[in-house]
Amino acid sequence: MESVQQLAQKLKQNIANIIVGKEHEVDLLLTALLASGHVLLEDVPGTGKTLLAKSLAASLSLSFQRIQFTPDLLPSDLTGIHYFNQRDGEFHFRPGPLFARIILADEINRATPRTQSSLLECMEERQISIEGETKRLESPFMVIATQNPVDNQGTFPLPEAQMDRFLIRMKLGYPSTDEGVEILKRTASVSGLRVEEAGVTATKEEVLEAQRICGQVRIADDLMGYIVALAEATRDHEETLLGISPRGTQALLRAAQAYAALQGRGYVLPDDIKRLVLPVWTHRLVPRKRHEAGHGQTERILTGIMNSIPVPSEKELESGVN
After folding, report:
1. b/e map of 295-320 (b: 16 or more CB within 10 Å)?
2. pLDDT for 231-290, tens place per residue?
3. How far apart are CA 290 and CA 296, in angstroms?
4. Hey, what domains does the chain have and what are their CATH numbers?
């Protein structure tokens, strides 16, 4: 676990050269990376969503593609096409940007549902089917999508099936006063570091090994039962239309393992789960009055459920660790 923690520290220090503050958000981003998951960055323009995604990509020696999602973007623009080569008289495949390792899907909700659906297979199954042929995507593979929740003109809301593919949804929020001053200082300084100048701190092999180690983090049976109890409570809640699915419980488990490894631990604590419930589950929970309530409704429901479900005791955890 020390190697995972050291890798995370190197990445956080490198990202801190570009991003001011946002330590918790960076931890969540690295949690998704180590858990082989995807991230949806949702906030108003100008808060650093794209900059954070590019900073992570610049810190990794992995192929990176930024895709600007627009209404005229076609699925073939993402997956690639077969074209006829007149020189040899044969068809060849030209891979699209989805064949990179790190994908920045900028303003993903501006693309049509048809184009958005082309991401479902690659995000879940790590493969792309084109004209009856299935092409595998190499690991690690991560999609970091951004969207502006305020601007509804010219956008297409992401369907529940696609939202469920994201391991974590998070908001960056506005900086504090001190962070705002530091941002201006870096902007005014000619020596301010740009994303293109950030050094690579992690290789593909290091990331794959860290992902493997995170999958070995221990979690007690009672904590697994705690996750299931939380999920069942969302399904029975009077204000929910769709509760957390088994895929959602698996996502929380993987995220908790990765988060524990980031802290240098080989075991999951109840606090790891409680800290990750909101970023992992808020976008998976569908309230009955979702069109009438604000974005905080699902957070309120989940917070109430966490307060009502008892956390396993220390003795129960010690007896249930695998």
Report:
1. eebbeebbeebbeeeebbeeeebeee
2. 999 998 888 888 899 999 999 999 999 999 999 999 999 999 999 999 999 999 888 876
3. 10
4. 2-191+200-211 (3.40.50.300), 218-320 (1.10.8.80)
Spatial separation of the C-alpha atoms in residues 219 and 227, rounded to whole Å: 11
SS3 of 15-38: HHCCCCCCHHHHHHHHHHHHCCCC
- Is the preceding omega at residue 140 within 30 degrees of 0, hence cis? yes
For 252-268, how does the pLDDT look when each residue is reduced to its tens digit (9 = 90+)? Answer: 999 999 999 999 999 99
Name every residue whose Cβ is closer than 8 Å to that of residue 86 and which is 6 or more positions away in sequence. Answer: none
CA atoms of 274 and 277, how far apart (whole Å): 5
Which token pair is 308?
């009502």
Helix axes 204-214, 246-262, angle to 10 degrees: 110
Bridge pairing between strands 127-130 and 90-95:
unpaired
